[in-house]
Every structure is written in structure tokens, then in C-alpha cells.
Amino acid sequence: MGLSGGAGLSEPAPLGTQGELLDIPEASSRTVRVAGVDRPVARVLLDSSVPHLDRVFDYAVPAELAEQARPGTQVMVRFGGQEMRGWVWERASTTTHLGLLTQVRRVVSDLPVLPEASRRLIDALAARQAGIRADLVRLAVPQRHATTEAAMRDQAPVRLATWQAPQPAVWESYDGGPQFLSELADGGAPRGAWCALPPGGSGARAQCLALAVRAALAGDRGVLIVVATTDQADELADSLSGALQDEDVVVLSAEHGPARRYRAFLKLLLGRSRVVVGTRAAAFAPVHRLGLAVIWDDGDHRLDERRAPYVHARTVLALRSSLEGAGLLLAGYTRTVEAQSLVEQGWCADLLAPRELRRQCAPRIEVPGLPELDAEGASGSARIPSLAHRLLKEGLTEGPVLVQVPRSGYAPMVACADCRTAARCRHCGGPLAMLRDHRTFCRWCARPQGAWTCTECGGQALRMVVVGSTRTGEELGRALPGTPVVISGAREDHGVLRSVDDSPRLVVATPGAEPVAQGGYRAVLLLDGAALSARADLGAGSEALRRWTNAAVLARPDARVMLLGHPDQTVSQAFLRWDHAGYASRELADRAELHLPPAWRAARIDGPQREVESLAAQLSSGFEVLGPVMPRREPAQAPTARALVRAPLSRGHDLARALLLAMRERSIRREEPVRVEVDPTVLW
Predict the structure, then answer these.
(1) Which of 250, 276, 307, 480 is in the most buried spot, having the most CB atoms within 10 Å?
(2) 195 with 339, same domain?
(3) Are 248 and 272 in contact (CB under 8 A)?
């Protein structure tokens, strides 16, 4: 199998030509002539989320705007009696409009913020995700900052460095690694799913990424790297800047504010930088001659856009790789089911280290079973048994120790102390949680509860059912007096810690909030394994494996990692063997049997019950439909129904097309809108 792959993601036919949507034959088009203007018809995509307006409208380009209203520029036009913003999608000499064309009113900026490659990508994504192109444009183009734009235009052109093809070096640790690097340096478009070894082993992430970037630069091409958070982007950009002394590495993130974000965007658009690291929206960054697109830890939910059309950064980069002939690297310490699906389709190569090397580089992982816990006596049934306390004490003699807790807070769930009935809010019925001072509040409406009475037995005492990170830190501080305890999490007063020094201390963190320890953690304790791996959610096992692995790689190579809390045996065994690709392959086979994504294409429909039933019935003749059902929702959200529409991979384009047409018909009839998400990560 070649690294460039064969079958897989292909470019769908672009949507949205006026002739197609209005069903006007091509022969009815007429030529438009304006003195002194070449291609005087501007086909404009309006900035509107209304489905039946997701098409281009023809406007006349006046002579005074002929040079400014280029394809990709932002313009103001008259539509429906009001002035609207839009983007020139293309210029033409003909129109299918039968009357007099309205003129473009003004050009916001003559800078083409949507180059041709970006417009093709947006067309392809809208077709694949049954989405609206204007929603994708808002993701792709940051808000204009006129002062920054004027300053960037006045800067002198930058002379970019010339690079030589690098030697494979650390990529030799991975099967197919040298071939991937060589093909990339030769100007090819290799695609690979890369399971990186832990940082303490050979083939560390930063070194491998730096070599891959240099290989793309050797062919005078650009590089795009997408990570989950701004902190990760800043850290990786600093690392690459150190390895690429003569190259400007740009960070593109919405958290940096309008001016800084637009400046980074313009550097790429104007060709003054060709290496960018950013968060999920950076997947659309206008990199000139893109040679390599990388997404790190693509299983992280923060890479999934939660606004319409709900597209994952992995999907954006995969389509972009096909459209622009660029290399693609789906990278991480683990392997997602989606990435494994592309590997098994032959669309990308499997860049995996040999099993012996993986076991050698991985930390020592322990998953105590019933015999080991029974040997501890009464403490074996405790949440943190005595063998875990010995692990912590042993690690603290040398340096910091990490404790991962799945849930934040003090007591995220409480119940009646007498009958064990879950405590519910008297106002909205939401679950109650407890603070450190034992005050209770509702997790849904946030109302304080005061005196509480059980509706089943009349009891007034509460007990903790689930223990959070704050309570865990408090308990461990009492058990290990004199040991500093640090808690890291988004809900803590000090937020997420980025790093800690090598002095002995307990670091209690929620998944994704683990700080990096200088020299690595001397021990890692993973608590409440069933809370992550035994959830009744699609991909719960893969997510648990990813979170445990991301904590384990922070340990020193000789450190011990212990997993407790009755985890799912299949997931824990994959973690124990450090076999992430094998687990992803088995999970993919299970999903294929159940007709679930990514083995099948699927669309989730949410909305009022009557509307969901109507749309599901409309699609049931050609596709598999499950539901509608009424999933449990928080009271702040309107009650909705949910249906799932499924199709084989070979009919994925048909499914998206049918959804697009149905949404446009509903929009024309002004029916109540529904939410459609194609290939969702959460089904029910």
C-alpha cells in the first residue's frame, strides 16, 4: 500500500450554482457586457444562515469596482430591501438572471480573504456535512481589523528561507516513517496515522514533528498544525521555532483577540509565513502551497466545532489534503476509531512503532484485579486502597506524583443517606452537588437548596455518591500529612496549571488538565476507571483510553502507573499492552456490525418532535432511520426529539445531498428549524 493511499475521501461536486438551484437550463444564460469591465458579473455568496439562500446571486460589477471586487473579497450588496454582506465567489461574463442585475454597492476590502483553495474547501465541506457555506466562511475568516490590515500592507515582502531535505533520524522508530518523510520532501502527498511513542522513549513528538515540517519546507511548501488548546499551540510553536531558527512560526487562535488573530491570518494570506500552529478554526488557514497538514490528538472533543455545521478539524484537514494535494498526519499518543477507519480503507498509512519498542518505551502499567485487592484486606474495597497509598508514598520520595480524577468539584453527585435515592432539585429536578462547606446546589439551575428532604423516605441527611477532584485532594492531604497538594482543573479558582517543578508534591487533576512535571512524574494514579470506560456512550472506551494514555505519558519511563476503579476490562487490557491501534480496530469492527460511524455515515437530527418525525419519514425511504426518541435534556434547553439516519460509506454523498435538499425545502416553507449534525461524536 502506498503512503498516498488510493480510495477514501474524494472531492464532491460543488453546490450552489444559480442555474442548478433555479432549475434553469444552461442555454438560457445570457452574456453581460459592461464597458471597460472584464467578467462584469459577480456571483456573491450572502452572509446568511438561511438554508435556501445558500447559493450565489448574480450582481453587476460597476467600472469603478472592477479591480477591487475580485473573487474572494468581501462586498456589500442590496438584497431583499436591505444591505447585506457577502463574498465574491467568482466572476463571470454570463448570468441566468432574466432582469436587470443590481450593482455591487461597495467593496469592504480588496484583499481576497477567501482564496480559491479556501472556496473549494468550503464547497466540499458544505456538500459533505449538509451545511451552509456562510457558516463555514465565518469559521474560516476572522473578523476584519482595518488598522492591522493597513499596517500589514505597508510591510516589506519577506524572503523565506530555503531548506534541505532532512534525514529520517527518529522517524526510523516507526514502520513507514522514513518513507513518509522522504515522499513529503520530494513534493508528494503522503497520508499517515501516527501513534507517537511516549516522550521518554525514542522518536519523541517534538523531534518527529520538526523533521516533518522541515521535509515539507524542503519542497517550498507550507505546514499547518492543529491542536486542541491555545496553550498547546503556544508550546508547540515555541518548540518548532527553536528547531527552525530561520522560519517564522505563526500561532492562530481566537483567544488571542481580533488584532493578533487577524495579523496572523494576514501573514499567511500574504505569504509572509508558511508554518502555522493553531486551534480548530486554524484548519482553514490560507497557507500558500500547503504541503503538510497535521492534527494532534484528534480524539479531543475540543477539536469538534459545536456551531453549525458542526465539522471536526480532522474532517477539514482530510478533505483539504485531497483538494490541495498535501500530506496529512493524524497524530497522537493514541489512535481514534476515525483514524483507524481511514487506515483500514487504505486511504492513509499506519505509522506505528514495533510492539517491542512500544512496550519498552511505555511506563510500567498496573491494573490490580480482585486477587490483588483481596490481598489488601478491608482496604481493598476502598476507593483508594492501601496499595495505591504505597505507590504514592514511594513516588513522593523522588518527586511529584499525579492523581487523575474523572470529575471536578467536591461532590458532583449526592444521594439520600438512608435509602440511597439520588438527590434532586425541588425546582427543576436536576441532580444536586455538594461544595466543600457541605452546602448543596443544583447542577442544572444552580439554585442553592438549603434544607432537603428525600421524596422516597423523608430522610434529610445526604451522602456523597461521586467524589470530585477537590474532595480527593482533601482526602489525600489528610492521608499524607506534610505533603503539598495541588489541584488543577478548569473549575478551580486558579484554573489549569501548565507545569510544576520536580519537588515532591501531589498533583490532583481532571483529564486534560494535567500539568507537565519537570523530569516527569515519579508515579501516576488513575482513579474511578469505570466512570470513564463504562459509560453508555459511543466511544466511551476510546475516550477513556485516550485520557489514561495522555496522563501516563507524563510519567518518567521507569515510573509506575496504576489504574483503579473497576475499569472496563477490554479497555484496560489495551492500556496495559499499550495497543491503541489494536483497540481502535476492534472498536471499528463492532461499529461496522452495528452500522455506526465511522464505519457508516450517519446524521443526527434534533428538534421539535413533530418536525423531526416529518424529516425522518421523508428520509426513511432511502436510508436507515432510528427513532425519533426523546433524550433527557437539561431544563434550560427546550424539549427536543432526536433521530439517527444512517447510510453505507458508499452512499454518504447521497445522504448529505438528501439532507441539504430537505433543509432547503423546509426553509422555503418557513417550517420550524431542526438541528442536523453529520457524523456526530455523540449519538444519544
Answers:
(1) 276
(2) yes
(3) yes
Do the annotations mark residue 348 as ligand-binding?
no
Evaluate whether 468 touches 407 at the Cβ level (below 8 Å): yes
pLDDT digit string, tens, across residues 203-241: 578 899 999 999 999 999 999 999 999 999 999 999 999
Which residue in this structure is represented by grid cell 460597476?
62
The DSSP-derived string for 565-585 is: S---HHHHHHHHHT-HHHHHH
415 & 557 share domain = yes
**The dihedral formed by the CA atoms of 507, 513, 517 and 523, expressed in degrees to the nearest 10:** 50
Q: Residue 60 and residue 669: Cα distance in Å, rounded?
A: 29
Among the listed residues 348, 318, 329, 487, the one whose alpha carbon sits nearest the alpha carbon of residue 405 = 487
Tally of domains in the chain: 4
Q: Report the distance separating Cα 383 and Cα 468, nearest Å.
A: 12
Residues 419 and 558 in one domain: yes
| Cα–Cα distance, 516 to 513 (Å, whole number) | 10
Task: Please identify, among 89, 110, 131, the residue that sits at the C-terminal boundary of a domain.
Answer: 110
Percent of the chain, pLDDT > 70? 94
CA 2 to chain centre: 27
d(CA 46, CA 294): 31
Identify the residue whose cell numbers are 434550560: 636
Closest CA to 325 of 11, 643, 646: 11
The mean pLDDT of the chain is 89
Residue 208, annotated as binding a ligand: no
Q: Give the bridge partners for 604, in sequence order.
A: 644, 677
Q: Are residues 287 and 412 in the same domain?
A: no
Is 361 annotated to bind a ligand? Reply is no
Let me know whether 266 and 350 are in one domain: yes
Is the pLDDT score of 245 beyond 60?
Answer: yes
Three-state SS string over 338-363 comes to: HHHHHHHCCCCEEEECCHHHHHHHCC
Domain that holds residue 633: 595-678
Torsion sign over Cα 663, 665, 668, 674: negative
428 is in an annotated binding site: yes
pLDDT score at 19 = 32
Q: What angle do CA 542, 545, 551 make, to 5 degrees?
A: 140
pLDDT digits (tens, 9 = 90+) for 503-547: 999 999 999 999 999 999 999 999 999 988 988 788 899 999 999
